Amino acid sequence: MFLTESPGWEKVSYLNAKGLRLAGLLHSTENKGPVLIVCHGFTGSKEGGGRALEMAEELGKKGYATLLFNFSGCGDSEGDFADISLTGQIKDLNSSVDFCLAKGFEKIILTGRSFGGTTALCQAGADRRVAGVCTWAAPSEPLNLFQGRRGVLQEEKNGLTPLTGEQGTVRVRESFFTDLQQHDVYGQAALVAPRPLLVVHGSSDNVVPAWNARAIYGAAGEPKKIRIVEGADHRFTGKHLEAWACLFNWLDECFSPTLA
Questions:
Q1: CB atoms near residue 167 (< 10 Å)
Q2: Domain 9-141+184-254 -> CATH class
Q3: Looking at the whole model, is its pTM more than 0.70?
Q4: Which residue ranges make up each domain of the chain?
Q5: Distance CA 185, CA 174 (A)
Q6: d(CA 224, CA 245)
């Protein structure tokens, strides 16, 4: 739960490319150095069940600001979830980068879990304003992943396709799948260099198997690191502190903010 009394937190909102208002939570530090923009997973939310909030507060102790936001159609952001697309999420993330730069942050770092990680990777490949990117349990071939989770028949009433996610079944437009065909995740991974990349994954991820992490790592240039968290599932259940440690160590090695 977001505690408005907790120091450092600010509720924020800003418009995406379609003029829809995105809802966010900004955890600031005293300096305007690096900010980490966190992308939630498919059907997820900016709070991450509370873990994203906790992680942001830990990052604040290390001198990093954090922006948590909901993609359009998710949580308290405007839009219809059925309109979801990777292109749309990339544009939302681009608007989030714009927002952070307008706030005066000097260095933009991206991270994201699952489909949010794919989004972060694609944005980083295309946007040189991004200083580095970390993916958590990100699918390297999202079209194949989601094709395997779609319903056999379209829902007749409004033409939406049922799609099974972590939170149950949702319905998306057919354009979700055709849009995925336009994106080359491996190509975007290759474009991140010479900016640093960290790929984090669980060895026991049955939703997005760990070969996805190795494939992203293999496509990327230097500097890059990969960390496979032994025994971790797709949500890093009971292993999230280990995943955090991978991220924190990488941040300090590559970005090391000057604490006020």
A1: 11
A2: alpha beta
A3: yes
A4: 9-141+184-254
A5: 20
A6: 16
